[in-house]
Amino acid sequence: LLIKGNHANCMNMKLDSSIFMDVKENGRVLSIQSHVVSGYCGNKCATFPLQIHRFEVDTINSVQFSNNTSYATWTGKTMTGSNIKELYFGLEANELLGYSHVLTGYVAEESFLTEMINIVHSLKRKNKDLIYFCDPVMGDQKRFYVPESMLPSYRDAAVPLADVITPNQYELELLSGKIIESERDVIEAMNLLHDKGPRWIVVTSTDIDYCPETLTGYFSEMKGDGRTAAHKFQVQRFPQYFCGTGDLFASLLLVWLHKTNYNTVLAVERAQSSMQDVLKRTLRMSECGDGSAVEGEKQSKKRIELKIIQSMDDILRPQSRVTCTPVEMKN
């Protein structure tokens, strides 16, 4: 084997042993969400972070698009219930269903959602210890971006099946049936959803006490004795619109809940710290560019795509320090 130039230098580099201290894999994840050819959202956001944290990842795409839908144009195909059912049949026939976790995100078509829920039911019957992470992607800022007819399936079937859910404020309102206008409303809405089944609920963003510099989120865990413990966190708010942040956060939450033995506070802190570092790196790289001139909206959209690969160190060892504080319900 002849190795030349930079390849030889790479072979002689001293590897960071902290990355490889434990070569044991952490589990096997079935990730069901969107796919884009160019850019990062859905499975493109989730797979790399999970893999570098030593999770095996199998992916099923709910849509296959050329690029994310914030661009003026996109092309591709939306998958249907028969598509996912066919794939699952092949996995089952070959006994390839040894999953420790299921992670689901954006689904665009109702029959796909129905079959996806059936698949999670089936996997939970096969493995009672399987953990289901459900990002109930339906909309934001009082606007649906999936058919409204999908709400009952999420509310009445997916949420009761889930162990962890990661809604934003609007999705929390849709799932709980409660309008969110205060911190108390957030806690009460999370408790309503705890009663449906999920043990862990992370509300990724809210507009309560709006501040242009910071974004506030909340999370709650149901303890073994039935009590709930709620916390909140604040992170830097960026004026730019990034596509795929929810997908990235859900995968990081899965990583850190598993690695911290489900220490929810520590897991959310680490996941959000990585998120901050990835967004900051993306902005820095967007501003310095890659040698080409910025030309209109198309180039701007391209520049602001999350820099997932370049952020490997941020995903493994975040430098930001997000802290969570307990929230007490006041009478």
**Biggest beta-sheet profile:** 10 strands, mixed
Could you tell me the CATH topology label.
Answer: UDP-N-acetylmuramoyl-L-alanine:D-glutamate ligase
Strand order of the largest sheet: 3-2-1-4-5-8-9-10-11-12
Strand proportion, as a percent range, falls in: 15-25%
Show unreliable segments. 1-23, 289-295
The chain-level mean pLDDT equals 91
Structural class: alpha/beta
CATH superfamily: Ribokinase
**How many H/I helices?**
11
Helix content: 25-40%
Q: Looking at the structure, what is the overall shape?
A: globular
What's the structural domain tally?
A: 1
Roughly how many Å is the radius of gyration?
Answer: 20 Å
Describe the structure in your own words.
The chain has 331 residues and is α/β, with parallel strands linked by helices. The chain has a single domain (25-286, 298-326), classed as 3-Layer(aba) Sandwich (UDP-N-acetylmuramoyl-L-alanine:D-glutamate ligase), CATH 3.40.1190. The chain is built from 11 helices and 12 strands. Strands 3-2-1-4-5-8-9-10-11-12 form a 10-stranded mixed beta sheet, with helices on both faces. It is globular, with a radius of gyration of 20 Å. 38% of the residues are buried. Residues 1-23 and 289-295 have low confidence and may be disordered. Keywords: ATP-binding, Kinase, Nucleotide-binding, Transferase. This is Pyridoxal kinase. Residues 114-285 form the Pyridoxamine kinase/Phosphomethylpyrimidine kinase domain. One of its GO terms (molecular function) is ATP binding. It is an enzyme of class 2 (transferase).
